[in-house]
């Protein structure tokens, strides 16, 4: 399903593209295509860098990929934007184990 979205995505610029890239990343994550999820979520963050959910989701994907330093950085970015988000605190704790 996600692969069909790729040609339609223009992954830079505005909030609609950030949302499309974020959704594509979530779908790729669900389909266990973690490299694709990383790419889409990176694009979503580049297009809308003030969305803590995108950073939190990216942190989860990076953790799965074993990129723990990058995962920690993404989780901390999410917490800087939304410090009360308990799910992200939990995710950061799992990354730091």
Brief write-up:
The chain has 97 residues and is an all-alpha fold. 74% of the residues lie in helices and 0% in strands. The radius of gyration is 13 Å and the shape is globular.
Overall average pLDDT:
88
**Count of alpha and pi helical runs:** 6
Strand content: under 5%
- Can you summarize the main beta sheet? none
Indicate the percent of residues in helices.
over 70%
Poorly predicted tracts of residues: none
Number of strands: 0
Shape: globular
State the separation between the terminal residues, measured CA to CA: 34 Å
Rg is 13 Å
Task: Please state the structural category.
Answer: mainly alpha
SSE arrangement, N to C: HHHHHH
Structure description:
The protein has 97 residues and is mostly helical. 74% of the residues lie in helices and 0% in strands. It has six helices and no strands. α2 packs parallel to α4, α4 runs antiparallel to α5 and α4 runs parallel beside α6. The longest helix has 16 residues. The relative contact order is 0.13.
Q: Descriptors for this entry?
A:
97 residues
Secondary structure layout plus pairing:
Layout: H1 2-5, H2 15-30, H3 34-47, H4 52-64, H5 68-81, H6 86-96
Helix pairs in contact: 2-3, 2-4, 3-4, 4-5, 4-6, 5-6
């Amino acid at each position: 399903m996600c692969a069909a979205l790729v040609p339609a995505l223009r992954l830079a610029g505005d909030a609609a593209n950030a949302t499309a890239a974020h959704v594509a990343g979530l779908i790729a994550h669900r389909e266990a295509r973690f490299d694709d999820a990383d790419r889409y979520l990176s694009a979503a963050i580049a297009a809308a860098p003030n969305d803590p959910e995108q950073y939190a989701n990216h942190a989860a994907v990076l953790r799965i990929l074993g990129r723990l330093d990058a995962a920690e950085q993404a989780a901390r970015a999410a917490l800087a934007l939304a410090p009360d988000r308990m799910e992200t605190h939990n995710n950061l704790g799992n990354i730091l184990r």
